[in-house]
């Protein structure tokens, strides 16, 4: 095998696509712990009928597979403790890291932390918001032009639709209100949220993981996606070179080894460090610097001025107004009328046509070594991997950020109507954006796990991908950024493989 990729989500798929494009004769094996799901491989669940979506969601819930929780925002599945305050936050298609986490004194933990286990990872369920990082969200040791080119490439692959201000209709009116309030010197200008969603054949089509993989099965004959296959550990030889992995067929229980010239672990922000830990690769920073976005979302009853009935609706425009991250305001706001929402929300049939709006804010965490996912040497999870525990607390700066986020929620809501409820902080883990656990760094100084090309420090031929590599404090949804980083890394992997192929061909002549 030339390349072994662990995880079939967006990150692994960007690696596979890029390596396949540059070295079409490479033999690439992608293993995925979760099952295949019915329908087009990697298709987004929002592109499916309600029944199809529900069937797929039930399959990707890992240990909760088959547990009905379609009405997750309203009710709770049998078997989960209804007294848990975070019960509203488990989404269909996902499963908790730990449904009853024990917290250390003073910790807030990430009780709603959840994952998806199935072909396509979270990328068949995601919201498809693809903002670029701004100001200190950007990675300081990657040259600006290089990162911009990578972001542009990721946008192309995802088929991102951008809408430029001032916009028209109701979104244009909301944009004007937000820009008047939130634009200012030194602040990233208000605009519209870019989305990996496009208008196709008379309907909105969401880009899922399948969009990233493209038609790789046709163009790369040596590509194989092997579902229900768990990577138990990466194998590293005595010279510190990754040489393959130990895999487990989850349907038969068979354990076997594959050898590979490159191993790439893209098993999400929590399970990528888990695979490294299980492999005995335990740099000081592994699992540490964990951060996710503080989140506050509130429904607003739109005022007469913003009544959707007063505006012509252009269904080809999504119209989610974006108040981007700025250093002076380390958070990102999104404001939209639900009448303009492309999502199938489990809020009742009339919600989309009603006068409801939503203001949703994400804020950046004060990043610290102490916030971590830690792994057990003795206890295991549902898959037999080292059990995870999350140690997470808020600093004084976090409390100030949360207060500022509440204030901005109130400000943004007051501009368009009346809040249905006071803004409350979502349970930790709800953002689903787990970052920093295998962070990249410019130097091997103990504060990072991999280098700027996502190669693990001190181990040859072992690369990483996913939100865990992002080293900065961000509020922007991370998928676009991590895909850009995966593309850079995959390009390096493919280039080195191509060199090896041509040297081998030369030697054979
Ligand atoms: C409802 C929802 C809405 C979201 N909205 C947005 C949004 O609007 N914008 C945004 O930027 N992000 C959003 N996200 C987050 C986005 O989906 C993730 O950032 C993205 O999917 C991460 O990609 P990944 O490949 O790193 O991980 P994942 O997509 O999680 O894929 C990792 C895969 O690895 C597999 N795996 C784990 N361990 C192993 C192992 N040991 N062996 C084999 N396989 C393994 C898992 O089963 C999983 O399928 C959203 C997520 C959800 C669920």
Walk me through the structure.
This protein is an alpha+beta fold and 509 residues long. The protein has helices at residues 10-22, 50-59, 144-158, 169-182, 209-213, 216-219, 271-278, 396-416, 479-508, and strands spanning 3-6, 28-31, 95-96, 114-115, 191-192, 197-200, 203-206, 223-226, 229-236, 242-249, 255-259, 262-265, 294-302, 321-323, 331-337, 356-363, 372-380, 386-391, 417-419, 462-464. It has a 6-stranded antiparallel beta sheet with strand order 5-14-15-16-13-19, covered by helices on one side. A 5-stranded parallel beta sheet has the order 8-2-1-12-20, covered by helices on one side. A hairpin with a 2-residue loop joins strand 6 (197-200) and strand 7 (203-206). The two termini are 22 Å apart. Flavin-adenine dinucleotide (FAD) binds at residues 6-12, 31-34, 91, 94, 116-118, 121-123, 125-129, 230-231, 266-268, 271, 275, 432, 466-467, 477-479.
The set of bound ligands, ions and cofactors reads: flavin-adenine dinucleotide
Percentage of β-strand residues: 15-25%
CATH architecture of the domain at 3-63 and 116-160 and 206-291 and 435-504: 3-Layer(bba) Sandwich
Rg over CA atoms, rounded to whole Å, is: 22 Å
Under CATH at level 1, the class of the domain at 3-63 and 116-160 and 206-291 and 435-504 stands as Alpha Beta
User: What overall form do the CA principal axes indicate?
Assistant: globular
Structural class: alpha+beta
Strand order of the largest sheet: 5-14-15-16-13-19
Instruction: Give the helices and strands as they follow along the chain.
Output: EHEHEEHHEEEHHEEEEEHEEEEEEHEEH
Structure annotation, total helices: 9
- The CATH superfamily name of the domain at 3-63 and 116-160 and 206-291 and 435-504 is FAD/NAD(P)-binding domain
Main beta sheet strand tally, sense and closure: 6 strands, antiparallel
Q: What percentage of residues falls in helices of 4 or more residues?
A: 10-25%
Mean pLDDT: 92
Q: What is the CATH topology assignment of the domain at 3-63 and 116-160 and 206-291 and 435-504? A: FAD/NAD(P)-binding domain
Low-confidence stretches: 71-77, 80-88
Number of strands: 20
Q: Report, as a whole number of angstroms, the end-to-end distance.
A: 22 Å
């Amino acid at each position: 095998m030339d390349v072994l990729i662990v995880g079939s989500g967006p990150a692994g798929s960007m690696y596979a696509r890029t390596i396949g494009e540059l070295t079409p004769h490479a033999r690439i094996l992608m293993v995925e712990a979760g099952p295949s799901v019915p329908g087009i491989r990697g298709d987004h669940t929002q592109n499916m009928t309600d029944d199809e979506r529900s069937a797929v969601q039930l399959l990707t819930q890992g240990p909760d597979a088959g547990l009905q929780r379609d009405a997750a925002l309203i009710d709770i599945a049998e078997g989960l403790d209804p007294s848990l305050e975070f019960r509203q936050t488990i989404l269909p298609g996902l499963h908790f890291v730990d449904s009853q986490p024990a917290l250390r004194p003073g910790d807030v933990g990430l009780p709603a932390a959840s994952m998806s286990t199935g072909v396509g990872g979270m990328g068949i369920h995601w919201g498809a918001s693809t903002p670029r990082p701004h100001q200190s969200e950007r990675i300081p040791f990657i040259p600006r032009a290089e990162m911009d080119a990578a972001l542009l490439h990721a946008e192309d692959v995802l088929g991102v639709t951008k809408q430029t201000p001032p916009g028209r209709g109701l979104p244009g009116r909301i944009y004007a209100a937000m820009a008047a309030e939130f634009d200012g010197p030194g602040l990233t200008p208000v605009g519209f949220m870019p989305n990996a969603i496009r208008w196709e054949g008379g309907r909105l089509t969401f880009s899922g993981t399948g969009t990233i993989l493209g038609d790789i099965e046709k163009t790369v004959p040596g590509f194989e996606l092997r579902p229900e296959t768990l990577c138990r550990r990466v194998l590293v030889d005595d010279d510190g070179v990754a040489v393959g992995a130990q895999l487990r067929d989850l349907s038969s229980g068979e354990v076997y080894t594959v050898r590979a010239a490159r191993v790439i672990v893209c098993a999400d922000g929590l399970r990528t460090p888990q695979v490294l830990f299980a492999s005995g690769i335990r740099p000081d920073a592994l699992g540490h610097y964990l951060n996710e976005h503080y989140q506050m979302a509130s429904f607003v009853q739109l005022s007469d001025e913003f009544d959707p009935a007063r505006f012509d609706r252009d269904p080809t425009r999504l119209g989610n107004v974006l108040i981007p991250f700025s250093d002076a305001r380390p958070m990102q706001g999104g404001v939209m009328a639900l009448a303009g929402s492309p999502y199938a929300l489990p809020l009742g049939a009339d919600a989309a046509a009603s006068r409801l709006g939503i203001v949703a804010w994400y804020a950046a965490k004060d990043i610290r070594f102490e916030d971590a996912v830690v792994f057990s040497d003795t206890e295991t999870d549902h898959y037999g991997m080292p059990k995870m525990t999350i140690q997470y607390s808020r600093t004084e700066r976090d409390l100030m950020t949360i207060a500022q986020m509440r204030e901005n929620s109130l400000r943004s809501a007051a501009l368009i109507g009346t809040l249905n409820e006071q803004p409350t902080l979502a349970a930790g883990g709800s953002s689903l954006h787990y970052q920093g656990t295998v962070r990249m760094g410019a130097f091997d100084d103990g504060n990072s796990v991999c280098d700027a090309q996502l190669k693990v420090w001190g181990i040859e031929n072992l690369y990483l991908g996913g939100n865990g590599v992002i080293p900065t404090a961000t509020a922007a949804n991370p998928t676009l950024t991590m895909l850009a980083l995966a593309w850079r890394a995959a390009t390096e992997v493919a280039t080195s493989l191509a060199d090896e192929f041509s040297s081998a061909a030369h030697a054979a002549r």
